Amino acid sequence: MFENSDALSGMSSDDIAASRRFYEGVLGLTVKDEGMGGLISVQLPKGGAVLIYPKDDHQPATFTILNFAVEDIDAVVDLLLAKGVVMERYDGMDQDAKGIMRGKAAGRGPDIAWFTDPAGNILSVLSS
């Protein structure tokens, strides 16, 4: 049914301009204007896109909505921190000084660190 369809994810923002600046300027991704009521799309590095639409009463999700798999999580977290991104801290998660939860060494999944975009949407960077 959908094998030939282009799929994309979507999320809302209460400040599209701030979202654009973050995804382009901080994360270095390509952002396109979709021309429909302020919609933008963030182009993902290996294909696909995330549509971001304006919503005045936006409420961010309480879970991670976008994950970026990287080869060197320490280097990427260092770059994010240098750009002023704050890593999220969660009670009950054993995170190091950088905010990285080291799951690989403990056999509990990937190393992962969380951060938010300007609208409070939770993103992560995780070891590939």
UniProtKB/TrEMBL annotation:
Pfam family, one: Glyoxalase
InterPro entries linked to this entry: Glyas_Bleomycin-R_OHBP_Dase, Glyas_Fos-R_dOase_dom, VOC_core
Domain called VOC: residue spans: 4-128
Protein name (Swiss-Prot/TrEMBL): VOC domain-containing protein
